[in-house]
Amino acid sequence: MAKVTSRTLRHYDDIGLLPPAFVGHNGYRYYEREQVLRLQEILLLRELGLGLDAIAEIVDREKDQVVALRQHRDRLLAERDRFDRLARTVSRTITEVERNAEMTTTSVAHWFEGFDPEKQEALQAEARKRWGAEHVDAANAEYRTKGQDWMREQGKVWVAALETLIGHIDANRAPDDPAVQETIAGHHRWLQGNWVPNRESYKGLANVYADDPKFRVKFDKTDPRLAEYLRSAMVVYADANLD
């Protein structure tokens, strides 16, 4: 029955989990619709990883089998969604590993495109307007002391942080989740290679990421959910940790 061995059925009967409808003169156990539905419920709960004691408590508590089956269906759908999210995260990781995590992959190349001299000058002017010439000039001076290898490594750190944040989104973690905040703390440390933002400036940067079209288009190409999620997480971090 339902690809369940007779030995398993005998065991379920012995422990009172699934008594048959009746036992014939020949010693055979006979099961009717009620028992078949109960068996299906038991098998579903086994698939969800529950032990027999827990299953017995659940199936005995819920007498309405339709209600019980709907509850189990919802659990299975939630579990399916969880595995789908995990599969997407693993797939992205596989892709990056197969491509040797090069920053010029199609998924992240847009973060490193289009920085010609004219655009650089425009960005410099805007940065001075937003954060002041003193901070920008100090950051530029710091950059000039770094080599290309350092720049490439910094880019890889940024890309890895974005991938981690997408993983948090896929896992339905709220922006104030400790795991998310740990990632944001890493982002704040990453910025400190050139600039140490305080609460106001870090929240300002969060707004730039989400509201400035030049940044927003890059975030949206990576993942449309990312900019707003990052902003929320950065604001939480700034309010909790920065002066």
TrEMBL record:
Keyword Nucleus: no
Domain HTH merR-type: 1-61
Gene Ontology terms, MF aspect: DNA binding; DNA-binding transcription factor activity
Keywords: Activator, DNA-binding, Transcription, Transcription regulation
Protein name: Transcriptional regulator, MerR family
Organism ancestry: Bacteria, Bacillati, Actinomycetota, Actinomycetes, Pseudonocardiales
